[in-house]
Amino acid sequence: MHVFVTGGTGTIGSAVVAELLANGHTVLALARSDKSAQALTDAGAQVLRGQLADLDVLRAGAAQSDGVISLAFGSDYSTAEALARSIVEESAAMAALGEELVGSDRPIVTVSGTPWAPGRASTEADPLPTDGPVAGRSRSVNALLDLASQGVRATAVRMPRTVHNQGKGGFAGLLTDHARRTGVVGYPGDGTQRWPAVHALDAAVLFRLALESAPAGTAWHGVADEGDAVRDIATVIGRRLGLPVETVPEESFGPFGPIFATDQPASSTHTREVLGWRPTHPSLIADLANIQP
Description:
It contains 11 helices and 12 strands. The chain has 2 domains: 2-162 and 198-225, Rossmann fold; 166-196 and 227-265 and 282-290, UDP-galactose 4-epimerase, domain 1 (Alpha-Beta Complex). The longest helix is centred in the first third of the chain and has 22 residues, at 80-101. The chain is of the alpha/beta class. Helix 1 links the parallel strand 1 and strand 2. The strands form 3 sheets. Strands 3-2-1-4-5-6-10 form a 7-stranded parallel sheet, with helices on both faces. Strands 7-9-11 form a 3-stranded mixed sheet. Helices cover 41% and strands 19% of the residues. The protein has helices at residues 11-22, 34-43, 55-63, 80-101, 135-146, 170-182, 200-213, 230-241, 257-260, 269-275, 284-287; strands at residues 2-6, 26-31, 46-49, 67-70, 107-113, 153-159, 162-164, 185-187, 194-199, 218-221, 225-229, 245-247.
């Protein structure tokens, strides 16, 4: 396939581009800067210059592709308002991409987070939350999946809170960044809450499998580690950075505070059984050993 990819230089996106190219696909990737364009060219992708807010550019990219993988999302999470703006921008982009594919039976794969289910690991059958700080993102993903009834092979890959590579990325990466700024590896609550995780290279394989074969209107879980206790994650980070580890108010993490404090393990049993996905790369705890002091 000739695949249009947005977000192709991020932690997940760069791995997805490499995975597609290594498996016989060609890639047209959105680039908003000279640096991103050069990275994509060096990787072997074709480049389409534009921003995620450039809806006509997105439509043009989708129009000349055999399928789409939508990964781009804003990078400013400093306030609830900034996060909300990123969600609105992503929602408009997904709607434009989906509309371009109506009636074509071509695939589009988007990304969301795994939901949480009180007292157990969430599964692919659990709905995304339609309230809370990321409710808008859930609604836009659901709207895209609804396009299955209009001739779009729309699917969603739900990512865990930490997608990591070389000790970087996801919620664990945000904990590390926060620790470098404050001198303390802090975590909300008592630290027994669990976060699921996956290596970016394993996630990339799942995006390719969904693109190639997942039925329309389906959702999949890219979860390798069902749930690591946040206190255990923080302990490894503290050991690598030589910093103390302690509980801090959830407000310390801005709009992510309530999510950081939530127990949210997730299962990928159905995904593995149906799509044949098999994670092979290091677990989060093992990969955190790559953090540089």
